[in-house]
Amino acid sequence: MSKPELKYVNSILFVCLGNICRSPTAHAVFRQLAQSKLPNIQIDSAGTAGYHTGAKPDKRAKSAGEQRGYDFSSISARPVVAEDFEHFDLILPMDRQNYQDLIDQADPQYHYKIVMFLEFAKNYPDVDEVPDPYYGGSKGFEYVLDLVEDASHGLLEQLS
To answer: Which listed residue (44, 95, 101, 132) is catalytic?
Structure first.
């Protein structure tokens, strides 16, 4: 299946299951990294399940990200909605299950927009998923940040 032309990407949606750990981390990291190179790009995050609608990011994810200088303000959990598939140019799930959930939810005409986030990572060639750190300790959140930073740098390089 073809992928979106990255030079035409003006909006990105990061997606995980509940939208409180991985996708808000990617949202905060990429938003900050893109500020100078792509100041007009729209960035958002959502979850394939609406378990935490309206909630702020997980305090452990927020703490780990803030220690590296990322801003989580204005980010709150929301579910993926049908309009997201039309609106966003690139939809980046964190893992295979969320990838499949998005494919199942999206009209087939939008499948090309859905690309695994870690396809843009350079330093983790053998890792294809951002693991869910929710039930683990602080090291899991640090590892998520390592993966997200790497993939964000790779994505930004391809977009700019």
So the answer is: 132
